[in-house]
Structure formats: structure tokens, C-alpha cells
């Protein structure tokens, strides 16, 4: 990879003078290293500095770009990208030339899906389709903990690139456990993360979290339940707390600011020019979005299960992994998880299935205690569940973990 310290020749994005803190150093978008990138290029970033430089390069020059982390790109994916005509540049290793060279498509950005239902797929976007915040915003310093190239990462990055006064503090993987200190040091007052990200912060050091003077707190990327919203409200009683439903396929589709899980049922099938239309088909969320990826126009089945409760539409989990069959009775893993996380001594829970004779499967769970008092034992948690769930849905095994697990996507489905 060719890298020098020259600045881009034709700066166009409005946010190039915004401050960016990366690797502990404060600079501006203009001051990031200039990458000399071929087109099309797949950049596998080992450090955030080069991911940001690639995003700036695309914003200025329009070079066709796929951006992800080196950890997500195994040998099979690298070969697939080479076959698709990309020059694969690894910022910390060997590059791979295209096996079938082609001309780049100006202005094209590619995102990789999360891969939760199989191998990651490429979804085409443009900087415009990824830039969903267009109106003038109050000045903010945003924390960006997301993996480079993910949809959530691009949402924060495009905000800083296109809006004056939207500064950025980037969290590298090794800083994840102590990000509140980094945020407080650099004046962060707005932060976006997954529910798992916020649960980890609440679990590890709630006092350090409370010292970050957040005016805007955003959740997304996983189902958002009332428990995590309420626990964050206890720490931040006056902060605006929002949750967002977004994906590589449909873009940012739902934004809720009222502090409640789910969204009002009145939003279903409500057309609004320039905004996504939401629907439910056979218990699945369906979105028609102006921010969709290439080739995905019209109603798109998201694969996410929804449930209408007390006038709210709750997004509870993936259709292909949420249902557990226990002796012919259907159990929602997300419903069991929500019961467990509602326990005052539970910081996080994951629910799954274990094969069993006769019944087919049994419900099992992993739990991280809050650590504020003596942790509840398995019997106490089972009784808690038994008071709130049908007998067949009560976990038959509950394993206590010392720490909330998280993967590169900031989700806990490890």
C-alpha cells in the first residue's frame, strides 16, 4: 500500500475541518494520511487511522471502495474479492491483485453484511445513501466504537464528514474496555453503541460511564429491550436516549426517542415521502426504504421477528434463531432473555437450546451477574423465570459468566 502525508487535492466534504481523535492523537480529517488507492479497492484496515483515511479518500475522489477489517476477511473472502475485480489491500500484511481486473465504478461503496445467516454478502451503496442525517445538527463530539466498514461505523463517519461541528473520537479494539476514560478525556458528549456495548460499560464501571457528559446516547444493532433503556436512564436522567433500527440492506429505517422499547403501532404501513415504510408480514419486519442497497428496492423482508404488545411493535430477534422447540411447544429465546435481564442482579443474558432425548431440545442460558451484591445462583434465577414463563420455557441450565462476551461487531452473538 502506498501511503504519504500529502493532503487530498480537491476537498469537497463539509466536515473536513472537524476534529478526529485516533490512536490518542487529535487531528482533522484533512490531516489523515493520504492513501493512493487503485479502483476498485477492498481495504482491510488493521487500524482506524487507515479506515478513516480511506473514507476521506472516497469522499473526495469517489474511488470504488469496500472497507472492512482484516479480521473479517478470511482467505476465502479475499479470494472472492479478487475474483470480483478488487485489488485487496491489507494495511498490515500482503496485498492481493485482482484475478479479473475491471474498471472501477465511480462513487460506489460496498458494505459487508454481518454474516449472521451465512457468509457475508456485499451490499452496494453510495456516500449519499449512507448519509441519512442531512439537516443542520448541534455541535457534538461523537464516540465511534464500531468496527470500520460496518453500517453503524459509516453512519457516524458520514455525519462527521458531511456536517461541520461533528467531531469524532475513535475507539480501537484494545481501548474498548476503558472507553469511558478516553471519552471523558476528549470531551465526548454523544455516543452510539449496541446494547451489548452499553451493558458492558454499565457492568464494568458505571461510575466511569456516568463521568462522560453525554447529551445524546444511541443504541442499535441488536434488539433493544426496556431494561437496558431504563438502566441507562438511571445513569443519564436528562440525556436524549435514542434507539435505531438499521442494516446494510435497508439503511437507517427506525429512530425512536421516547425512551420506550419498540415503536408505536401507528407507524406501521404509514407512507411518508423520503422516509422508510414499515410493515409486518407473518411476524416479520418488512421495510421499504429510500436508503436501501443496490438492487433491493421495494418491500424487503428483514429476517427480524416482531411482536405487537400494548400498542408497541417490538423487534425481538432473528426469525431463524429465536425459536426453540421444546417437546412441540415453541419458546422465544428473546422472551426468556428479556425475563432474565429484567432480574435486578443480571447484567446480561444469552439464551439457546440444547438437544435432549424425547423433548428434542431444552432451554439453556448464560448469565453475567451485575456484581453489585452476591450473584444469584442457578436455582434463584430458575425460580425467577418460573414465576414469569411457562414451565417448558424455564431454562434447565443457567451458567454464570464473569464478563459479557463481545465480538468485533460489538454484538454478543459469539
Automatic annotation (TrEMBL):
Domain AMP-dependent synthetase/ligase: 105-280
Keywords assigned: Ligase
Pfam families cross-referenced by the UniProt entry: AMP-binding (PF00501), AMP-binding_C (PF13193)
Top-rank lineage group of the source organism: Bacteria
Family per record: Belongs to the ATP-dependent AMP-binding enzyme family.
SUPFAM superfamilies, per database record: Acetyl-CoA synthetase-like (SSF56801)
InterPro entries per record: AMP-bd_C, AMP-bd_C_sf, AMP-dep_synth/lig_dom, ANL_N_sf
Protein name stated in the entry: Acyl-CoA synthetase (AMP-forming)/AMP-acid ligase II
